[in-house]
Amino acid sequence: MKYRRMGRTGIRVSEISLGSWLTYGNATERETAFKTIEAAYDLGINFFDTANAYARGAAEVVVGEALAKYPRESFVLATKVYFPMGDGPNDKGLSRKHIMESAHASLKRLHVDYVDILYCHRPDPETPVDETLRAFDDLIRHGKVMYMGVSEWSAAQMCEALHVSDRLLLDRIVVNQPQYSMLNRGIEKEIIPLGERDGIGQVVFSPLAQGVLTGKYKPGQQAPQGSRATDPKQNMWIGNFLGDDTLTKVASLGVIAAELGISMSQLALAWVLRQPNVASALIGASRPEQVSENTAASGIRLEADVLDRIEGILGND
């Protein structure tokens, strides 16, 4: 496993990290989740991601219990705050009240004294950004959180937060968690240049485009039974990637992977990691075998001619 600095910070995280969205505390049985996290740790993954909203706290419980047997200093742990955790008017958002209450509840569920990263899971247009930043700064000063992150914020929203942080001498955003894959390249225009300029590392989710970049979906064929595409609880944005034109491109990418002697998943992850501003690619896994395959992408460096061929297939040449 290779490790990278997260933005301009001194912390180093594994190029492949393990998430718990749609899996732990939800779709994956507890014992299997434990074995998957254990396999990830043994393979060199030191970066584990969850959120309070995943299965309304159940994912945090599973992740915390699975990691409890390891030295706390040996792994980097991230969680998030924003989405509703109850039915009350203050049970969501990025107010100081909700951030503080959610952070302390997450620490209890995770069985830790601090988390390395706390993300604003989404922007909150109803809360002044200085209120949110001051709450995060206080958590950092009290040692409950090491670093502040955001997820799915626009470049303009991050720029505003950086400006306010600098003006008020508060801790800055140092990590962003956006979607990014061969099939979803929206962050390349503004987010990555901002990250490179201001020292914000990208920890990207859905690098396999909801599983489409594993190659298991074929043009002109129905999705396999039991796959994410057939589960309304998990399909989320996958429909955006299931058109025959897109799946034909994926099939062509599979030819390149075969020529290189690697899997489609490994090709897709290596492509994401070609970006220096990407600190880590988040994978979701329901079985230890998936972790083993995906971690093998760490250290694969794609040559310029291969990258050119990929660009040609994706239609960005």
List the helices and strands and how they pair.
Elements: E1 3-5, E2 12-14, E3 16-18, H1 30-42, E4 47-49, H2 58-67, E5 76-81, H3 96-110, E6 115-120, H4 129-141, E7 145-151, H5 155-168, E8 173-177, H6 191-198, E9 201-204, H7 244-260, H8 264-272, E10 278-283, H9 288-295, H10 304-314
Parallel strand pairs: 3-10, 4-5, 5-6, 6-7, 7-8, 8-9, 9-10
Antiparallel strand pairs: 1-2
In short:
This protein has 317 residues and is of the alpha/beta class. It has helices at residues 30-42, 58-67, 96-110, 129-141, 155-168, 191-198, 244-260, 264-272, 288-295, 304-314; strands spanning 3-5, 12-14, 16-18, 47-49, 76-81, 115-120, 145-151, 173-177, 201-204, 278-283.
What report would you give on this structure?
This protein is of the alpha/beta class and 317 residues long. Helix content is 37%, strand content 15%. The radius of gyration is 19 Å and the shape is globular. The protein starts with a strand and ends with a helix. The mean pLDDT is 92.
